[in-house]
Amino acid sequence: MAAKIIAVVNQKGGSGKTTTTMQLAGAISRRGKKVLVVDADPQGTATRWAASAEDEDPFPASVVGLSAANEKVHREVKKFIDDYDCILIDCPPAADSPVPQSALLIADLALVPIIPSPLDMWAAVGIRQVINNVSELNETLTARLILNQCQPKTTLAQESLEILPEFGIPLAKANIQHRQVYRQSAVFGQTVHSFGAKAAAAIKEIENLTDEVAAIISL
Ligand SMILES: Nc1ncnc2c1ncn2[C@@H]1O[C@H](COP(=O)(O)OP(=O)(O)OP(=O)(O)O)[C@@H](O)[C@H]1O
Ligand SMILES: [Mg+2]
Fold first, then answer.
1. Are strands 62-65 and 142-147 parallel, antiparallel or unpaired?
2. Which of 7, 10, 154, 163 has the CA that lies 20 to 30 A from 99?
3. pTM value?
4. Can you tell me the distance from the alpha carbon of 185 to that of 53, in angstroms, rounded to the nearest whole number?
């Protein structure tokens, strides 16, 4: 069976693309699926994340660096499609990069992590056009916004919610709160699941997100 493909995109830097990619990849792997992370970002953050794991406790999904493929990344990803259940493509932030467009061409689902602050959101609204353009070629493409680094009950978050409709992309029910354990996951080359009881709330939100994503792409 062909792998389900998730492209994690947002031209805005630092919105949580790599965090979302790696947490989801690890969580889906833990459910017994064979998962590949495609690091399509020349910064190589996903690759470094996985490389930070101890040899005796490796990151649960495979990671391959394909940023050099540029606008042909979809062709390179296709070569792996029969070997995995799920492929997540961590895209670079640059607005002028051809990579997100290429990744979206073969994706079943586009995930757009955004930080719910007005400045971050205005900088990210342009992703709507990219997804709309690709949707004409990839008619089955579905997309979801994911709120990342949420700090609930602040007035700023409320203002930000008013910008959301401009994206024209449905909001995932699950969101990701601002928590130190997300940074620690990267340092130790793991997901929040490795941090046990003290990460219970983070594990819960990643599991909720994984449930939602799995339901959308019938994983
Ligand atoms: N929910 C969160 N809580 C705390 N820190 C977070 C959270 N999400 C992301 N971060 C931190 O914010 C920074 C940016 O996150 P990340 O690298 O995932 O974003 P990105 O969109 O992939 O960035 P880039 O555009 O540079 O590729 C990292 O230091 C990461 O650890
Ligand atoms: Mg990144």
1. unpaired
2. 163
3. 0.97
4. 10
Ligand 1 atom nearest to 113, measured from its CA: 21
Which atom of ligand 1 is nearest the CA belonging to 12? 25
Query: What is the rounded CA–CA span in Å between residue 106 and residue 84?
Result: 15
Residue range 33-58, pLDDT digits in tens: 999 999 999 999 999 999 999 999 99
Q: Among 44-53, 152-161, 176-185, which is the least confidently predicted range?
A: 152-161
Ligand 1, atom nearest to 186 Cα: 31
Distance 15 CA to ligand 1 centre (A): 6
Residue 155, pLDDT above cutoff 80: no
Q: pLDDT band at residue 156, thresholds of 50, 70 and 90?
A: low
Q: Could you tell me the sign of the dihedral formed by the alpha carbons of 169, 172, 178, 184, in that order?
A: negative
Place of tokens 């932030």: 93
Residue from 12, 18, 88, 151 whose mutation best tests the ligand 1 pocket (most atoms within 8 A of CB): 18
* CATH code of the region 4-213: 3.40.50.300
